[in-house]
Amino acid sequence: QVEVAESGGGLVQPGGSLRLSCTASGVNLDYYVIGWFRQVPGKAREGVSCIIMKDGRTYYSDSVSGRFSISRDNHKNTVYLQMSNLKPEDTALYSCATDRDPGVEPSDACIFGWFRHWGQGTQVTVSS
User: Fold this and answer.
1) Contacts by 106-112 with C-beta closer than 8 Å and gap 24+?
2) CA 56, 96, 122, 42 torsion: positive or negative?
3) pLDDT given at position 28
């Protein structure tokens, strides 16, 4: 059984940084894709960043490109999302998701969001 858990959210001032962690158990992530998504009540879910665990190919949405960085540690079955220069509009519930890699580009994974295994999410609030 695949289980996904996020950590690292919290309250941060504008311009600050946070690092989110996503750990998956019950799978060998070498053959999986992991994505970070965020959602604000009343708005559509956004695919923020996705990574192909086998080769490290990444995708970032336009809203976070240049400020967020996704990385992986296959030995720890963990993916990190380093968020820098945070803005109030980055406030959201951030969720991590994973599924087997069907051979797609990471952009497709984030845009279509077809993952079956999701974590509970971690809240990120950017406010002064």
Assistant:
1) 106/33, 106/35, 106/50, 106/51, 106/52, 106/57, 106/58, 106/59, 107/50, 107/59, 109/33, 109/35, 109/47, 109/50, 109/59, 110/35, 110/37, 110/47, 110/48, 110/49, 110/50, 110/59, 110/61, 111/47
2) positive
3) 87
Non-local (6+) Cβ contacts of 63 within 8 A are 46, 48, 89
Q: How confident is the model at residue 69 (pLDDT cuts 50, 70, 90)?
A: very high
% of the chain surpassing 90 pLDDT: 90
What pLDDT digit, counting tens, does each position of 26-52 carry? Answer: 988 889 999 999 999 999 999 999 999
